[in-house]
Specification:
This protein is mainly beta. Helix content is 0%, strand content 58%. The strands form four sheets. The protein has a seven-stranded parallel beta sheet, with no helix packed on it. It has a six-stranded parallel beta sheet with strand order 3-7-10-13-16-19, with no helix packed on it. Strands 4-8-11-14-17-20 form a six-stranded parallel beta sheet, with no helix packed on it. The relative contact order is 0.14.
Length: 196
């Protein structure tokens, strides 16, 4: 079962446009939920929200089995914490393996406070604060990640991963972000600010 505090989306039939998701306070269980989801949307903004818990606090995606492009979306000045997967996740994927998939471009993630604490081996992985990746046949370009505060606190049990995970992204910018790692990094484990 998956659900979202706020869900704007479809299965690729049409693009949503000009959405503004602002000033919400969303509290979620740790699994099966996204806080604020924009699927197949363009010219939209997610700003000034507080999201706690869930698999992903903010989920921005292009998905379907047709070739189309979502663009010009902004994630700004949000406070997102304690996501079991990633505070902010951006992805594009096709339902058909090897088919022509959707594209996502011109995404700005700026001025957010993103925190995950007490991370242990049970919730390890890359992109605990921001995860941008492709699955199947999607494409992603022009991702701008600036002036975010990225906070990760390690718990017991050992963990390897990263605060930010960027995979197969073209023409993108990562600058002016502040990264804070606290806790004890056990022997044999690594945790990076950015994994590209």
């Amino acid at each position: 079962c998956e659900y979202a505090g706020v869900l704007v989306g479809n299965e690729g039939q049409n693009l949503h446009g000009n959405w503004s998701i602002t000033y919400n306070d969303v509290q979620l269980p740790p699994v099966g939920a996204y806080g604020l989801e924009l699927t197949n949307a363009q010219n939209s903004t997610i700003a000034n929200n507080i999201v706690t818990g869930g698999e992903s606090g903010i989920f921005l995606t292009a998905q379907g089995d047709l070739a189309f492009t979502t663009s010009n979306n902004t994630v700004q000045n949000n406070t997102v914490s304690e996501s079991t997967w990633s505070n902010v996740a951006v992805t594009a994927f096709s339902y058909i393996t090897g088919g022509v998939g959707p594209s996502i471009s011109n995404v700005t993630i700026t001025g957010n406070i993103l925190t995950n604490s007490n991370l242990s081996s049970s919730i390890s992985g890359s992109g605990k604060n921001i995860s941008a990746y492709l699955d199947s046949s999607g494409t992603m370009t022009n991702l701008t990640i600036t002036n975010n505060q990225l906070n990760v606190a390690l718990g017991a049990g050992g963990i390897s991963g990263s605060a930010v995970y960027l995979s197969s992204i073209g023409n993108s910018v990562f600058t002016g972000n502040t990264y804070t790692l606290t806790g004890i990094l056990d022997s044999g484990f690594t945790f990076r600010a950015v994994n590209i």
